[in-house]
């Protein structure tokens, strides 16, 4: 049973799906210097609006765009929901801490599963509702869970994705203390890369059986071939260089998709622009794939949206399959690694793509996509 993608919604510091895609193909970035919190210094950040966005607003905007794109509307009582987030309503919690009262109103609306619950309520579904949380691997985990709901026959259609609003004082202070934040911008795989830049946003997808999509003559962006999910639990933040846990996730995705490394035409890398992650990922790719495979990370344009980054990368991979353009590694000027890094938009038809996400705690998620 094939699982296809018939609708997408995306929100980033560059706008919604089409504006973001268009600007990335032009090599533009939405990252800007921001002074948001008096107790913290200036940082380059990827903001959707002038101020940090709340996760409920991002969720509602994404869902609306996704349904319009898929030509669907509520109620959708038999549609599954899998919406993840690594930070959830942390911004709300940080605000609640400042309230000088014992009775905090509406606190139940700030639990980690809130985006999934809000989505389920908006489409009025009685089907399964899941809310995975797997650090930066969350977005692909959500797509994998949605794929499984369809493949196991529990649903014919699922809305899956991930949402993140991570720009808060605590998150910024934590990453700064780790020494992971860039000072000037995000330059994945570049010799001068400094670290990550936080961004807001997310992506949602309508997944459905190929039979259901054909019956309503839906537009199809591509097919989910398979996924790989592993966890090495090596370190709270540093990637594992040896023993192959990330490699196993790639191999799982290839096997489930009935593909070989030579079949992959494009990889959307995790590419956070940190020294360790980019080096580890470059070594991983060189070990498994032929040197000709095209590679880019779009975090130089959108920032790192943490748990939503894999969903956003999947959206760009599907756009590449659908339109025949490979997005550039925005910010790359002097690549450090012997890889086919895309410095400028490349017009080339591909049949298969992969998207990688590697999260804190050694969580590895890979998804394979096909025309």
UniProtKB/TrEMBL annotation:
Gene3D superfamilies: 3.40.47.10. Residues 1-371 form the Ketosynthase family 3 (KS3) domain. The keyword Membrane does not apply. Keywords: Transferase. The keyword Transferase applies. One of its GO terms (biological process) is fatty acid biosynthetic process. Coiled coil: none annotated. GO terms for molecular function: 3-oxoacyl-[acyl-carrier-protein] synthase activity. SMART domains: PKS_KS. It holds the Pfam family ketoacyl-synt. It comes from the Bacteria. InterPro entries: Beta-ketoacyl_synthase, Ketoacyl_synth_C, Ketoacyl_synth_N, PKS_Beta-ketoAc_synthase_dom, Thiolase-like. Belongs to the thiolase-like superfamily. Beta-ketoacyl-ACP synthases family. PANTHER family: BETA KETOACYL-ACYL CARRIER PROTEIN SYNTHASE, POLYKETIDE SYNTHASE-RELATED. This is Beta-ketoacyl-ACP synthase. The lineage of its organism: Bacteria, Bacillati, Cyanobacteriota, Cyanophyceae, Pleurocapsales.
């Amino acid at each position: 049973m094939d699982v296809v993608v018939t609708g997408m919604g995306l929100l980033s510091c560059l706008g919604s799906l089409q504006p973001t895609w268009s600007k990335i193909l032009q090599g533009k970035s939405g990252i800007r210097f921001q002074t948001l919190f008096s107790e913290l210094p200036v940082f380059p950040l990827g903001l959707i609006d002038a101020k940090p966005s709340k996760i409920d607003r991002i969720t509602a905007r994404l869902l609306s765009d996704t349904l319009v794109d898929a030509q669907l509307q509520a109620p959708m009582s038999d549609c599954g929901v899998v919406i993840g987030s690594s930070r959830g309503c942390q911004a709300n919690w940080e605000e609640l801490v400042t309230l000088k009262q014992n009775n905090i109103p509406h606190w139940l609306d700030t639990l980690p599963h809130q985006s999934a619950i809000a989505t389920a309520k908006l489409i009025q579904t009685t089907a399964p509702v899941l809310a995975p949380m797997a650090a930066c691997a969350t977005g692909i985990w959500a797509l994998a869970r949605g794929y499984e709901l369809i493949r196991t026959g529990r649903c014919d259609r699922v809305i899956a994705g991930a949402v993140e609003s991570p720009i808060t004082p605590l998150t910024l202070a934590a990453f700064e203390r780790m020494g992971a934040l860039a000072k000037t911008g995000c330059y994945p795989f570049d010799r001068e890369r400094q670290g990550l830049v936080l961004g807001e946003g997310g992506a949602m997808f309508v997944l459905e059986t190929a039979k259901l999509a054909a019956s309503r003559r839906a537009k199809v962006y591509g097919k989910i071939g398979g996924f790989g999910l592993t966890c090495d639990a090596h370190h709270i933040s540093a990637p594992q260089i040896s023993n192959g846990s990330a490699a196993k996730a790639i191999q799982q995705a290839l096997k489930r998709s009935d593909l070989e490394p030579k079949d992959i035409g494009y990889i959307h890398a995790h590419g956070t622009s940190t020294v360790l992650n980019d080096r580890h990922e470059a070594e991983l790719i060189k070990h498994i794939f032929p040197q000709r495979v095209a590679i880019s990370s779009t975090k130089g344009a959108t920032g790192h949206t943490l748990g939503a980054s894999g969903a956003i990368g999947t959206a760009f991979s599907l756009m590449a399959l659908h339109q025949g353009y490979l997005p550039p590694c925005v910010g790359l000027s002097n690549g450090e690694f012997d890889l086919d890094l895309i410095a400028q938009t490349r017009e080339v038809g591909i049949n298969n793509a992969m998207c990688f996400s590697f999260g804190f705690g050694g969580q590895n998620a890979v998804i394979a996509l096909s025309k």
